[in-house]
Amino acid sequence: MGFQSVLRWGVDLTLVAMLLAAVRRETGLVFAYERYDFTKLIRGYLTWGEYCFQRFINHVKGDSGRFRKQLDGVDKFLGEP
């Protein structure tokens, strides 16, 4: 396994952890990690996802310039009212 493969796995796992963090923040549902033997490892992984997600949110809300507030009546996604 080369460096690029390890890097790719790291990025993919980080994105999944960030997705789980977003699910927790949006719905209040958390991954039931206490069912598994590696609770410390999984908790650390989920904490890493929370950290990365918060950094991403701070970047988006900050000076990125690529994001704006949603406009009522214009930005309707998935049939929102």
Automatic annotation (TrEMBL):
Pfam families registered for this protein in UniProt: Mitofissin (PF08520)
Native organism: Maudiozyma barnettii
GO CC, alphabetical: cytoplasm
Name listed for the protein in its UniProt record: Uncharacterized protein
Keywords assigned: Signal
InterPro entries, alphabetized: Mitofissin
Signal sequence extent: 1-25
